[in-house]
Specification:
mainly alpha, single chain, two-stranded parallel ribbon, globular, 11 helices, 5 strands, Arc Repressor Mutant, subunit A
Length: 253
């Protein structure tokens, strides 16, 4: 049975503008951490989100002292977060020069897409025809909310629902560790995804692909579910090639 989802096109907005190389300080202040909760994860999450949403742009210099002051913490947990982000490819730490937001490296995006496709195609093939009624109802509700977000041009909400939809597939298939792996490898992909959201018709395309994947899973069509997930995840490869030409200041090899 087809899942009926409706929505109106969202209005495009301008992509982030490049900042001069080496300029310090994010475009928007970071929210101070909550001292009643573990500090290091909060710092990591705030910096990761600022980078993946392009609040902090490639080549922007990062000062441990400035970040610590904004976050209301000492420099040590900030340094730890920067090292973790460097391990994940979002920050470049250059000896004698400092820390900088890394460019969106095409090779990293391509490898992340390869790994994510291998995992998520297997996930939906395993899940097809085996989703519980609770899962199916929750997924339908998620897709309906995605359609509403598209109609209202709420890109931030759409991205959150997109994440929840993909995560629910892995969890329902009994493969939650697969999603944890995907979360790490897809960080470079996330910047491309965020950058592409304002493009006319892009959200509508992603929504239609999500619906198609869900319908195949619900119908128990494992091969079709895998093929539709492949097409969906390869969308980022088409997007990154287009954006790397339009915004070369954000990309590197």
């Amino acid at each position: 049975m087809a899942t009926k989802i409706s929505g109106e096109p969202s209005s495009p907005t301008n992509a982030p503008k490049p900042r001069a190389e080496g300029q310090r300080g994010p475009a928007r202040a970071l929210e101070p951490v909550n001292n009643r909760m573990p500090i290091s994860p909060q710092i990591y999450e705030r910096l990761r989100r600022a980078i993946t949403t392009l609040t902090m742009l490639p080549s922007e210099a990062l000062s441990e002292q400035d970040l610590a002051k904004q976050l209301g913490v000492s420099r040590t947990p900030v340094r730890e977060a920067l090292i973790r982000l460097a391990d994940e490819g979002l920050i470049d730490i250059l000896p004698q020069r400092g820390s900088f937001v890394a460019p969106i490296r095409l090779s990293d995006v391509e490898e992340a897409q390869f790994i994510r496709e291998a995992l998520e195609v297997s996930v939906v093939q395993k899940l097809a025809g085996h989703g519980s009624q609770e899962f199916l109802a929750t997924a339908r509700a998620n897709l309906a909310r995605q359609a509403k977000a598209v109609a209202e041009g709420d890109r931030e909400l759409f991205l959150e629902l997109d994440e929840a939809f993909h995560r629910s597939l892995s969890e329902e298939a009994g493969l939650p560790k697969s999603w944890r792996v995907i979360q790490v490898v897809k960080l470079q992909m996330d910047r491309v995804r965020y950058l592409s959201l304002p493009e006319p018709g892009h959200l509508e395309t992603l929504l239609a692909q999500h619906v198609a994947i869900f319908e195949a899973v619900e119908a128990g069509e494992a091969k079709q579910a895998g093929a539709r997930m492949t097409a969906h995840l390869r969308e980022v490869l088409r997007t990154v090639q287009r954006l790397s030409v339009a915004r070369p200041d954000l990309f590197g090899r």
